[in-house]
Amino acid sequence: MVISSLLRDLEPVVETNLNRHLATARDWFPHEYVPWSQGRDFDGALGGQAWQPDQSVLSEAARTSLIVNLLTEDNLPSYHHEIAAMFGRDGAWGTWVHRWTAEEGRHGVAIRDYLLTTRAVDPIALELARMSHMGSGFVSDHTGSALHSIAYVSFQELATRVAHRNTGRISGDPICERLLAKVAADENLHMVFYRNLLGAAFELAPNEAMRAICNVVKGFQMPGHGIENFARKSVQIAMAGIYDLRIHHDEVVMPIVRHLRIDACEGLSGDGEAARDELDHFMSILDKNAVRFEERREILRARTTR
Ligand SMILES: [Fe+2]
Ligand SMILES: [Fe+2]
User: Fold this and answer.
1) Residue 249: what are its φ and ψ, rounded to 5°?
2) Integer CA distances (angstroms), 123 to 46, 132, 147, 219, in order
3) Which residues contact 127 (CB under 8 A, 6 or more apart)?
4) Residue 288 Cα to ligand 2 middle (Å)
5) Cα(257) to centroid of ligand 2, in Å?
6) Which of 75, 183, 211, 233 has the fewest CB atoms in 10 Å of its CB?
7) What are phi and psi of 98, to 5 degrees?
8) In angstroms, what is the span from residue 104 Cα to ligand 1's centroid?
């Protein structure tokens, strides 16, 4: 089949999954999750109290992760541009694009309100980081390929779900955990939407879909990879067990690969078959690297707690 017609062929699947999404997703209100009573004026225009690091009750790793997650959410205009350009703004695709954007918009609002109200992070550094990050925008690694884009967002939504969930879990603040669990639940529904689409694409064009999945997994980068000092922040996040190679392998890539029953797919040939082998090989290397990382982390943790 001709891949350029794929988006048109998938439109009925989009419609079905859009309706399923709308029936499943429950409205929620960010203001209900923010502890406003903890808030007070900052210095500057209102002459309140300046931010001090000791006002934050969160660990350094939790703060780093919340900043990365928030800056990632902040770049929504660029993501909207990417998916609107790829999927279009008409019909079921368009309804999804706008609905998804509206839901994602809630995440940045809610997390920023929480961080500022609880004085969890330096508000000036946060704003400067937002300006710098959004100033560079986000360009997808997969512009021009609908299949690669659908594969990428499937893994990316699951990755952000796990990152939000685990950040909440290690935050030590039940209010933060409740808020991030709510955000994570949204990301999960987004993942299900895209994963179902990827499944349908896999049936329509198995070889091309297999190639796209393989390429996307091999070159996967988090959507916030353009954040300043992202590599250093990622190490901190991995060391804290929020998002690391083991989690990426076990809780992000494998569940989707398994769900698509890639192993059992009999319709592959030529490059599709080669891509499946390539993915298989890559996953075993990823698994070995994850083992190595966990061992190194154990040694480092033992050293710091000694
Ligand atoms: Fe989000
Ligand atoms: Fe999402």
Assistant:
1) -70, -55
2) 15, 14, 39, 33
3) none
4) 29
5) 19
6) 233
7) -70, -40
8) 5
* Residue 105 CA to ligand 2 centre (angstroms): 10
Nearest to 182 by CA among 83, 286, 110: 110
Is it the case that residue 3 has pLDDT exceeding 70? no
Closest ligand to 190 CA?
Answer: 2
Ligand nearest to the CA of 164: 1
Rounded to whole angstroms, the Cα distance separating 136 from 114 reads: 25
Q: Which amino acid is at 143?
A: T
Q: How far is CA 290 from CA 11, 14, 78, 167, 294, in A?
A: 38, 35, 31, 20, 6
Question: 44 CA to middle of ligand 2, Å?
Answer: 35
Contact 138, 80 (CB under 8 A): no
* pLDDT of res. 304: 83
How far is Cα 89 from Cα 98, in angstroms, rounded to an integer?
8
**What's the 281 CA to ligand 2 centre distance in angstroms?**
29
